[in-house]
Automatic annotation (TrEMBL):
Keywords: Membrane, Transmembrane, Transmembrane helix. It holds the Pfam family DDE_Tnp_1_6. Residues 433-557 form the Transposase DDE domain. Residues 49-139 form the Transposase InsH N-terminal domain. InterPro entries: IS1182_transpos (IPR047629), Tnp_DDE_dom (IPR025668), Transposase_InsH_N (IPR008490). This is Transposase, IS4 family. The chain crosses the membrane at residues 541-558, 579-597.
């Protein structure tokens, strides 16, 4: 049994504690007022240093410093003088370069950036050019100065030892043009339509000459080949004269039946005249213009941007090999800085090497020691240019593999006994020994012309007899004897390329190609999101990519400066920690070696 007194006492204590808790809960809590930092955007006057708000190694500071190094005369030479005062070219250059570094490529967006972005305001010094002014400067002024400007910036990078012109890593990539992908004009279809038109013109001219003989009209001799536009115009004028004469006869004739016969004759002449005037001549002129736009090097162009060529892009989302109008950009880098670039209308890299290097040699930039490129450039024509140049002097050392270099390293290639490169060659007799032990003798020389107009000198070897050879089905698909087309010049060039690629030092240099130029392409297309040109025309596209290349270089400089600055700060902090540690050790050691009574 429980003690009632104890239970009563405990119950009373518990009830009292419950009342105290209820009283505390009933007391109102003190309300704390929120605290904010001072803010007032309606103040009438403020002293605000814009430059102080920009970090030390910001890309805007790099752009400002690099552009200020340009002499004014270099920029002022592109202004005729007179008229209303223009915006300073240095200010315009700084603003456009900074906008491209911030992924702003449209003139309207650049105008907005100047009004809203703090570094852009500082670069513009508070001035606000509108989008028309920015567009005019980029479209009219910059084509005249872009090459010298880019060259000056690259030489400044060389002076600051960011680049050394030691290795010239070259590669190409395709950028889409600012053109509709359905505005294509293909050269082959043009030539087909032109042939059909010429055939139809010849048939119609034969009919016209027959009508002219009946009408007694002198048209002259029929052209042997395809008639020109002027010859067609002359035929049309003769038909018009006859048409007017028949019209006069109809008006003079009063007999209805005779008038009807004359009208039929006139109707036939008018039909042929309309065909010549409204169909043959316009189409002939149109096809001539379109073929002229295509030229000898291209097989297509876009009606929106006639300088753009239809190419296969890597970004093929439909996986159907769709062609899009674009440009082939050849670009060289070192230490991931863009040294030089050129814009081409040819889709393949093979035929872009020589024009690219010729354009580079026209500049004042020093010739690099070594050119490094992939197998897409390893053709006989390119090798000979690198070895011989234009004046029989080597352009530079090269580390450029050829198309079959990697395949030649495979065991299957080396063990393929039907490959002529693995056959025994007897130099004294100039012949090969085939897998069946038969002689493959030299037969003749052959000169072959490629699309670029380059002639290859080939040596043709033919087996003495393959008729009863049991290995013929495995060796060749030809009905006759097995032939070998041997290019001695190309084989010699490939041997030089192979020797360079097998060198241990140059092998390491070639391995850098993947992280050099490919990284820059990835930065331009991925980080800067530049995959399509905004301007149209070869010259304007050249300007736009030049701006992008300089923006990339300035971003790279700013990044390096920030890394060096952060490294210095870390070293300072590390030195401070080390100094503190050694100081503590020194003090501890001092007291540790002292007598005990000295420490009391």
């Amino acid at each position: 049994m429980c003690n009632p007194k104890t239970a009563t006492a405990d119950y009373t204590t518990f009830s009292g504690m419950e009342k105290e808790i209820q009283e505390k809960a009933a007391r109102p809590k003190r309300q704390l007022a929120p605290v904010f930092k001072p803010y007032n955007n309606r103040q009438s006057f403020a002293i605000f240093d814009v430059e102080a708000q920009i970090p030390e190694h910001h890309v805007a500071r790099v752009i400002d410093e690099m552009i200020e190094l340009l002499p004014d005369t270099q920029l002022f030479a592109h202004y005729p003088g007179g008229g209303r005062s223009s915006f300073h070219p240095k200010m315009m250059l700084k603003v456009i370069l900074y906008a491209y570094s911030q992924k702003e490529y449209s003139c309207r967006r650049i105008e907005k950036l100047i009004r809203e972005n703090l570094p852009a305001m500082w670069l513009a010094a508070g001035q606000t050019p509108d989008y028309r002014t920015i567009n005019e400067f980029r479209r009219v002024r910059m084509p005249e100065m872009i090459d010298t400007l880019f060259e000056s910036m690259v030489m400044e990078l060389h002076r600051r030892e960011f680049i050394e012109f030691e290795n010239y890593f070259l590669d190409g990539t395709k950028f889409e043009a600012n053109a509709n992908k359905y505005t294509f004009v293909f050269k082959k279809s043009l030539e087909t339509r032109q042939e059909k038109l010429e055939s139809k013109i010849r048939e119609t001219l034969a009919e016209i000459h027959g009508i002219a003989e009946m009408e007694g009209v002198e048209l002259g001799e029929r052209p042997e080949g395809n008639p020109t536009v002027s010859e067609l115009a002359e035929v049309a004028s003769k038909l018009e004269e006859r048409d007017e004469a028949l019209t006069g006869e109809i008006e003079a004739e009063k007999d209805g039946s005779v008038r009807k016969v004359i009208r039929k004759r006139r109707s036939l002449i008018r039909k042929k005249l309309k065909l010549v005037r409204e169909d043959f001549i316009p189409r002939k002129e149109k096809y001539a213009v379109q073929l002229g736009v295509c030229g000898d090097d291209r097989n297509s162009y876009s009606k929106t941007d006639p300088d753009a060529t239809f190419m296969r892009m890597k970004d093929d989302h439909m996986k159907n090999g769709q062609l899009k109008p674009g440009y082939n950009v050849q670009m060289a880098t070192e230490n991931q800085f863009i040294l030089f670039y050129s814009i081409h209308q040819r889709p393949t890299d093979t035929r872009c090497l020589i024009p690219h290097l010729k354009a580079y040699r026209e500049t004042n930039l020093p010739m690099p020691k070594r050119i490094v490129a992939d197998a897409g450039y390893g053709s006989e024509e390119n090798y000979r240019y690198l070895v011989e140049g234009e004046d029989d002097k080597p352009v530079a050392e090269f580390v450029v593999p050829y198309g079959t270099y990697i395949r030649e390293q495979l065991r299957s290639f080396k063990n393929n006994r039907f490959n002529a490169k693995n056959w025994e060659y007897i130099e004294e007799d100039d012949l090969f020994i085939c897998p069946n032990g038969r002689k493959v003798r030299f037969k003749k020389y052959l000169q072959k012309k490629n699309k670029s107009g380059y002639f290859q000198d080939l040596k043709i070897y033919e087996c003495e007899d393959c008729s009863d050879c049991p290995l013929k089905k495995l060796c060749t698909k030809a009905k006759g004897n097995r032939q070998v087309h041997w290019n001695p010049i190309y084989e010699e060039m490939k041997a030089k390329a192979r020797k360079a690629l097998e060198d241990e030092t140059l092998k390491k240099v070639y391995a850098l190609r993947k992280i050099e130029v490919e990284t820059v392409f990835g930065n331009l297309k991925g980080n800067l999101a530049f995959r399509r040109f905004l301007l149209r025309g070869l010259d304007k596209v050249h300007v736009e990519f030049g701006i992008l290349a300089m923006a990339h270089n300035f971003l790279k400089v700013a990044r390096i400066l920030r890394m060096l600055s952060a490294k210095n700060i870390k070293n300072k902090n590390r030195r401070r920690k080390n100094n503190s540690f050694f100081s503590a050790c020194f003090i501890l050691g001092t007291y540790w070696t002292a007598p005990l009574f000295c420490m009391i």
